[in-house]
Amino acid sequence: MRPTRSVSGRGWRYVSPLLLFTIFFFFVPFVFIVIMSTWSRVDGAILRTWNLDNYIAFFTTPHLRVALWNSVSITATVTVVSVLLAYPFAWFIAMRVPTRWQRLALVLAIVPFWTSYVVRSYAWLLVLAKNGMLNKTLMALHLVDAPLEIAATRIATVTGFVHFFVMLLTLTIYANLRQLSPNYARAAADLGAGPVAIFRHVILPLSLPGIVVGAFLTFVLCIGDYITPQILGGGNELVLPQVIMLQIGRRADFPTAASLSVILMCVVTLAYLASARWLKLERA
Amino acid sequence: MSHATERQALLAAGVATLVLGLASGAAAATEELNALVWCDHTDDAFIEPFEKANDVRVNLKEFEGTGAALSIIEQSQPGDWDVLIVDGVDVPRLAESGVLGELPADQLPIDDLWPEVVLADKHVIDGKTYGITELFGYNTISFDANKVDAAELADMSVLWSGKFKDRIAVYDWSLPMVGLVAMGLGKETASLTTDDLPEIREALFALKDSTTQFTDVVASQTALATGEVDILFGGGEWLTAVLSSEMPNLDWILPEQGGLMWSQSVGRFADAGNPDMALKFIQYIVSPEGQKALATSSCYWAMPANRKTGDLLSDAEKRALRWDQQAEYLARAQLYPAPGGELEQAIEDLWSEMRAR
Prior knowledge:
Helix content of chain B: 25-40%
Number of helices of chain B: 14
Shape of chain A: globular
Oligomer: heterodimer
CATH class of the largest domain in chain B: Alpha Beta
CATH superfamily of the largest domain in chain B: Periplasmic binding protein-like II
Order of helices and strands of chain A: HEEHHHHHHHHHHH
Number of strands of chain A: 2
Structural class of chain B: alpha/beta
Largest interface: A-B, 35 and 35 residues
Number of domains of chain B: 2
CATH topology of chain A: MetI-like fold
Strand content of chain B: 15-25%
CATH superfamily of chain A: MetI-like
CATH architecture of chain A: Orthogonal Bundle
Strand content of chain A: under 5%
Radius of gyration of chain B: 23 Å
Number of domains of chain A: 1
Number of strands of chain B: 14
CATH topology of the largest domain in chain B: D-Maltodextrin-Binding Protein, domain 2
């Protein structure tokens, strides 16, 4: 049955504030960035003439494509590892921890969120550095003869990211798992399914939306980050957000920075389209 | 406590807060000055004497590079800013673009500066002065003397020979680092062309192979101080002098090829909202008292451009800054490359290509 005009009108009144906010503080600035990406910086001055030179430069400059690949590959690794670690954690809280303790368990899970992101990265540096806590412990226990080279590598970058995003994914997966009726699992057990089969054929598919939402948020936040690769990765692998910051901070080349930002936005859009396909399961 | 008593207590607290706020407002400075600065200008020991002497409140905004400063300026209205701290090599283009305004040269202690840092070709355009050098220093080689012998670093090219593989960090700033590599190859930074880039590329890539990290100011100090690296390519007094009392083993050297000289200048905005106070602030910055506070700031140390500052520095501070060797160092130093157009883009691309390897 089609909604009446009064119902539709009320709906628009409710969403209008948020819609206007999104238009003025997202779409309009984004359109401006797209326009700026078609300008050029020549001899320190910004030329406001439309062209695709910045985009052509991206596709013809190998190191820029390498920077994008570094961003995507690090983000993909972080997303997969974070999901693999967060799911059992969220499952344990949702299914095994008594209800009256679940809130406390979640609070403890997100306590690291309370510290500054930059401070957390430097804290990991103190742990993973050549003279850091980890190496000192391993050498004191005679498990290694020389310090492990972890800081200033991709492993350190991924570790710092995963520490942050596991918390995010735990929340989204937990929220999904909590919504599942226990009758699904009971019905499957009544039909002869064991615990592993129940998880594979009932719990996991129904918790996929929570995984995908969390994974998408992880992807979006991770791919745009340059602080952790700089602090923990030692700046050894150039990622696209770093290139953007270098263009702005060192050269005031806003058109190039804008074009790279648009490209990054396109990658995020592709990730959204891939996630949206999986999210249809929730509506089914 | 009854509700009526609670309301009275809250009302009294509110009135007291309002009165205190008005009182502090009444005691506030009568003028304001707005300055875009590097972090070394934010110490209270530097700002407070000027504020008290001139009954002015100085509002400081830090930025991390000329590009960042330009983006702030682009988003500002005329009159928003009064004073700008900027790399000396960038003064000409800021003057030509109308950002910086003329300064009265006869009211500045130019004769008190080290002659090599007056840099008239950067600060004087068509007979008008647009800036004055406030601080200078070197991008050269910092190292941990407990782990590396200074004699091993006498020739800069040893850093891309592989001898110190995985023991080097590189200061993450393209133009000066490419300039420093160029000096290591015996080239002049002022006359670099795109024809020089293939040779520079080879050395730069070899340096990358020995490098464990690319660092900003803070990360550079951290990496050297914690022992993550033994050598910092691009370091200098700005990196190690501030740690000289706690970590005397951290040192710096000008190799035989010399070092790159960085210089900071101070200028007044052409559309400054408070031009007279801006000039007073600039005069304070280049006075021995202001220079002493800047030279030994908590952010990083630097050589004061005003030679008379030597009367105010302690012997330990002079040693950390190599005060007595400045004449020799300045003779072997070159300025940052200041390319334009195609060469600047090529250097930036080279740096990004090296970082992405």
